[in-house]
Amino acid sequence: MRVPRIGLMAGVYLAASLPPTVSAGAQGFTPLAQVASATKTGARVTGSLLDRAANLDAESEPLRDVLVRLRRTSGVFVAFSPTRVPATVRVTCRCAKATVGDALAQLLRGLPFTYSEMGELVTVEPVGSELETNFSRSAAQAAHADGQSEPVNEERRGASVVGISKGSRSVVAAVVSGRVSEEGSGRPLTSAQVSIEGTRLGAITGDDGRYRIVGVPAGSQKINVRLIGYAAQQTTVAAPDDGDLEVNFVLVRQAISLSQVLVTGTAGRQEMRAQGATVASVNVGRVTELTPVKSVTDIISGRVAGVSVTQGSGVSGSSQQIRIRGASSISLSNEPLVYVDGIRIDTKQTAVAAGAVVNPLNDMDPNEIESVEIVKGPAAATLYGADASAGVIQIITKRGAAGTPFRKTLSVTHAQLDPTFTPYTNFAACRAQDLTTATLCKGRSVGDVVSDQPMVRYGLPNTGHQTSINGSVRGGGTSYGFFSSIGVDQEKGLFPNNTYDRMSARLNYNIQPTEKTRIELNLPALRVTGDLPVTAGSSAGWTTGGMAGSPLTVGTPTDGWFGANRTPDAIASIRHEINSVRLIPDVKLSWNPSAHFRNRLTLGADLSSVKSNEFFPKNSNGWYSASQNLGIIREDRRDLQRGTANYLGTLDLAMGRGWNSTLSFGSEVQADVEDLTYALGNQLTTNSARSVSAAAQVSGGQTVVRDRRVGFYGQWEPNYDERVYLQFGLRADRFAAFGASAPWFYSPSARVSYVLSDEPFFSVDWIKSLRLRAAFGTTGRAPTAGASLRTFLAAPYLTGPNQVASGIIPLNPGNPKLQAERGQEFETGIDASLFNERLGLELTFFDKNTKNLLLRVPQPPSLGFQEDGYRNIGKVLNRGLELTARTKVITGENFSWGVDVGANTLRNEILDLGGVPAFSSIRFGTVNSVRQGRQVGAFYTNRIQRIDADAGVAVVSDSLEYVGNLLPTFEANAASTFTFFRKLRLYTQFDTKRNFYIYNATAAYRERNFGVAENAVRRNEVLTAEQRLSRFGPYVTASGASMGTGTVLGPYLERADFVRLNEVTLSYQLPDRIARKAMGAHSASLALSGRNVALWSPYSGFNPDVQNEMDALAGRADFFTLPPPRRLGVRLDLTF
Amino acid sequence: MRISRLGRGGICLAAALSLSGCSDFVTVQNPNIVEAGGINPDVDGALIAYSAFQDFVAGFGDIALYTAWFTTEAWTGDSSEDRSEVGRRAIDPANPRLNTDVWIRFSRGLATSENTRDILLTASDAPKNIHHARVNLAAGYSYLLMAETFCRGTARGGPVLTTAEMLNLAAERLTSARDIGLAAGGAPGTLIVNAASVGLGRALLQAGKAAEAAAAVRNVPANFEYLLYTQDDPANRARLGNRMWEATVDRPSLVVPPVYRAAADAGDPRIRYQNTGLRAYDGFLPMYAQRKYPSWAASYRLATGLEARYIAVEAGGDQGAMLSFVNERRAAGNLAAVNGLTGDALMTEFLAQKSLDFWLEGRRMGDFRRHGALVPNVAQPGEVFYKPAAGPVGNGMCFPVPLAETSANSNFR
Question: Among A682, A710, A1032, whose Cβ lies nearest the Cβ of B234?
Fold first, then answer.
């Protein structure tokens, strides 16, 4: 381990240059008032601040409160140290007509304080070094005199009055500032927490890595620095009694940072060493240093073992699917819960168009995010309730801290989007009638094969581009901190009608009005507008249009495209626009009456309004279907109001003999109102009058869904000597889904963490740290309100021509015994830092059982209900190993090389279906099946057993047979970072997924349905007899029955394994003097990057890491899915 | 850390209040949902009966469409292989379209009709309750269409029904509908009586009970029509709209085959179509669009006096009468009379005229089940399908009960 470089800079402090700030951290530091140079201790000066009217009356009120109030009533800033003025001291002052000086004299009479005027403020300071003793006695006396039974608290032990004043006797302190940078690269590290041990002084580094703490008590002080992904550091300095002290830190990258502080997965903040279950944390600053990212899913993709991200499609704005530790639910969502700063946000996806699903998670600007923590499963998710079995993602946004230097940052990214595919060629054989009518067949003979690719002829797909600009300011004042950011992201996709623009603004503000009280206010606002074209699986889209059309129509109005007269003009005229506005405000009120008793109340909301709009222009060209040609406009609006409130209380309890413990308790309440309305206009008057009411035929509808849930939890965490940590938790929940009579859902948890390397007897040189951990936890998953009720849906009926009345239709059979499904997880693992921190390992075994599975058991359709009701049956297993390894292969002054590797295995298996027969998804028939003993949604088909060439048939199995997995059983990623001369860095990231399948529906439909693939048209030339029969049949079962093609999908179920070069970035940190000279910035960096650079796979389609549907069962199908583009970009980051 | 007694009490009180308030908090009422307890059969008889009947109407349109494809009354111009399977008479039980488009919708109509019938049986005026008659009519026709279309059947998740059992149930319900309608009287009652009589004749003929069939339709007026109403409501097209029109303009996949176009081209007014000049939804077949149902609001004919005559003629077995009837229908189609036809040739011509008279009305499947190869212009097993990429025509004679039903209904195991 390298020794931190500490630079001490003796300097002359100029009082006038010191802003009247107080150092207080955003992360739990309390403010400390400061003073400047004392000039008139206890003296009154005519015309001075002390002569102003006090306008104050107080009757046995706490001194602190009175001093604060004096500021307001007099307009004079009265500075004092809250930590030195106990709350128990009460005072009385009839000072309505007194001056500020007189009032202070009266207030401080008998107390060991003096006051002085300094510049534009008045300071209240302790008197002399004997102060402590005198004060204790005086304060105690005052307290008792007021009838207070509580003894004087002990907080003053941790702080001292600071004063920085050249020549002042009684005021002694320093300003500690410096820079935190990374070992090897020398890059500034943003968001590092710097704190003075034993005090609540602290700061957070800005984007240039600098920090500043004002008012550090003179003498020996320990300074701690923490940052996710780096070894925590502590150093002892001698703070001078007058002047500046510069302390620079060089942090060492560390795979296993047991001192890392987590805010997720436990009640309250906690060091990783105390957390018995795995909570992964991603330092977003670190990620964006290495490679540009544009969304939250980019941040976590390929960076956390056990977290699988699959791209939906390559349409700009479309979302990705996130799975954590497999799929534990069959009928409910497997998407993790997402919290932003402790507020659960809505991540319901909106299908804007076929192949274009939008996830509000990606509305957030990554530049606003400090870190992302991922709770992988029930073992750590107990505190998130009976809805968290698919894991939890907690997004922690940036914030300012009191005393943090004011910094402005500007990030500009520009990227080019290049298609990663060449459209398939369409073929057709000329028929007799085509010889005169089809352009390509003229002059040819019957049976001649012609080919065409209309997309290529029309120069599609295009090159897209993306531009992002983000500006932010961050800093802090006397007792407050702030972070504010504005970002704009504009993207133009690969097709003419694909745009996706995002604007985000955020103000995070925190203030500490008193020592025990802290208020945080976060006000983010997001706006997304976009136009997302149809791609996957719809005839109205680009990819189907271009790859399913017939060459025989070249030269006709259809011109080789699919369907009606649907050329690019027609497709580009279709609009699928989205326009969303979102506010996610939250306020956190912390009240810590003592260092051992802390309370936090969080109130938040997620208020979103999403408008999606579909438009088919009126046209006389016959572009679309007959009804669409008259013009259609449809607008869907989804307004969500989600309110969240949670309370957390924490008590520290000393147990003796090295044992301490923390007791946490709290509750969480959530209420949702989702209002879905739509309006539909058919037969437009003109295309310019694009409102629903301008249509000849108008209709609409509305659905309102209310949902509520409430939970209570408690957690007890004893620890022994900060080496052995135990946690016992219990949560109880109730849901509107199950009705008022449903029992409480209890989620117990227990965890242990043992830092073996901290034991005195442990002395293995090559092991720096070693921790053993194990955890068991329970959580669940619940549907929305009303799931347990037998219900009908309002539906109209006709009694005659144009005679409509309101009726009903059976909806849900109901199940009064319904409960949340229960996920139980056991995990155990080790964390080790080896070979002088050159190798860090984190190895975890997890075993997650989802019991009481909430399954929409397929019921006989003949029962007449529209929905299958839920039943609690069955079990699903997710078991695997996760490995994270970080190595520093070479560490040198001018060259370093580090490699990070993450890998996980997954065994997903349906252990029990409760007697329910196997069933399949609807979308692609039997392709994805739910069967006991196999993965959720495993691929099945009537397998081709043999080819009977003599009979000219392919013989297939009588029943559906297993083909392969839906979910990869092995995933890994490897990131390599070369650093040259501290400034130049080359970062590459590879990822791989193994042992899973994808349904190549594109090939199946091109060959079997549209007959435009070469395999179909020239089957006799390019396919062997066996291949022909296997792809086209005819099929007979082993028992002799004829069989259609629908369930014989073997030729199109393909291995989807791949290795991908996902990210390559070359970045350069400009020398500071150049940054200053050229751009007037403190620091500047430039990065050239590529994403989705190259892919190797046996899959015959374009890209196996896509899927057509977001639903678990619909599974992984490439149905004319647009593959994700390659992004090549440049990013410039400036800090001012 | 010590907590004062007052503090402890406050915490306990807050917890108690919170817990006791939870039941109220988690009780929500969603305005779109009608809870079962909110329906009163005594008061809501009309509502539940008409609702059930509308379920039947919604399912009828799809049965008519899919059987049209199956019997080559129409070509499937759809990109979906699942629908091409129907046209190729090679439907896999796992075919998802068969389940979602046909079985689910159709069997819902049967289930809700039967459920409502059970409820109204307990009504004091059950023997003459017009709503009771209406749901019996819907249930009877549902069993009849299921018997004609599906090889096997079931209702409300119950036991497997053979064709004969379904026809028996159809006859039973339709007899009830006729009797109750007669007792109810009035114009609505008369309409139901005649519709039930035609359905009863159709069921009995299908069951091989020719004499009873002829008797059943004896009193149906020649000009009688029982219409199933539809409506152009963009918000409820799947439930209220005409499904043939949907397959004509919305997802243009109902393509008029050459033989029917030829009839129209020759001046037969019973067939109406239009060459749109466009391609069908599959991008392959030229879109010859039907115009028999010219809008979303075009009604279906459930039963007619003409059909009663067809039933009576076929059930009567008199070849002379049949030939005479055939020539009457040919005249209606501006076709010259034919002479000397007997036996299978006469039956084929009889069925040909019927297919023109009831084109796209869901009648042909029963004829196909009864007469097989005598039914003209049905794609034959092994022949090249009109969309060669989809494989040859199969030998299916009926629709399989979808896998979704057979796997979830334990009676099929």
Answer: A682
Q: Residue B395: which of A741, A785, A1042 has the nearest Cβ?
A: A1042
Instruction: Give A1028 or A272, the one with higher predicted confidence.
Output: A1028
State residue B160 phi and psi, 5-degree precision.
-70, 135
Lowest average pLDDT, out of A448-457, A812-821, A964-973, B152-161, goes to A812-821
Q: Which of residues 54-93 of B touch A (CB under 8 A)?
A: 54-55, 57, 79-82, 84-85, 88, 90-92
Least confident piece of the model among A140-154, A919-933, B5-19? A140-154
Of the pLDDT bands very low, low, confident and very high (cuts 50, 70, 90), residue B226 is: very high
Give the bridge partners for A998, in sequence order. A1054
Chain A residue numbers touching B80 (CB-CB < 8 A): 1009
Best residue of A544, A1009, A1052 to probe chain B, by most B CBs closer than 10 Å: A1009
Partner-chain contact B22 A1008, CB within 8 Å = no
Whether A917 and chain B come into contact, CB under 8 Å, resolves to yes
- Say how far apart CA A1131 and CA A1085 lie, in whole Å: 8
Pull the structure tokens for residue A855.
Answer: 């399954």
Angle at A871 (CA atoms; ends A866, A877), nearest 5 degrees:
120
Amino acid symbol at A555: G
Q: Quick one: closest CA in B to A916, which residue?
A: B408
A175 bridge partner residues: A214, A244
pLDDT at A923 over 80: no
Residue type, A118: M
Cα–chain-centroid distance for residue A267? 19
The 3-state DSSP class for residue B385 equals coil
pLDDT tops 70 at residue A209: yes
Contact A740 B23 (CB under 8 A): yes
Q: Which of A340, A379, A343, A380 is nearest to A362 (CA)?
A: A340
d(CA A192, CA A178): 12
- pLDDT the model gives residue A152: 29
Give me the helices (H) in A81-188, please: 100-107, 131-145
> What does pLDDT average to over chain A?
82
Mean local confidence (pLDDT), A533-541: 78
Taking the C-alpha atoms of residue A383 and residue B178, their distance in angstroms, rounded to an integer, is 64
End-to-end CA distance of chain B: 67
The answer, yes or no, to whether residue A827 has pLDDT greater than 90, is yes
Determine whether A129 is exposed, middle or buried from the number of CB atoms within 10 Å of its CB (0-12, 13-18, 19+).
Answer: exposed
pLDDT bracket for residue A242 (50, 70, 90) = low
d(CA A826, CA A750): 10
A712 reaches B (C-beta below 8 A):
yes
Q: What is the pLDDT of residues A952-992, one digit of tens each?
A: 999 999 988 999 999 999 999 999 999 998 889 999 999 99
Backbone angles phi, psi at B360, to 5 degrees: 60, 30
The stretches of A884-959 forming alpha helices (DSSP H) are none
Residue A31, token pair as written in the block: 């403010």
For CA atoms A931, A932, A935, A941, give the dihedral sign: negative
CA pair distance A977, A985, nearest whole angstrom: 7
Q: What is the ipTM of this complex?
A: 0.92
Cβ separation of A622 and B277 shorter than 8 Å? yes
H runs (alpha helix) in B26-103: 45-70, 81-87, 96-97
Question: Which B residues in the span 322-351 are in contact with A, Cβ-Cβ below 8 Å?
Answer: none
Compute the count of residue pairs across chains A and B with CB atoms less than 8 Å apart: 292
CB A631 within 8 A of CB A687: yes
Q: Supply the pLDDT for residue A444.
A: 95
Q: Which of A992, A941, A939, A927 is nearest to A965 (CA)?
A: A939
Q: Residues A654-682: pLDDT tens digits?
A: 888 888 888 989 998 999 999 999 999 99
Read off the tokens for A918. 């196997």
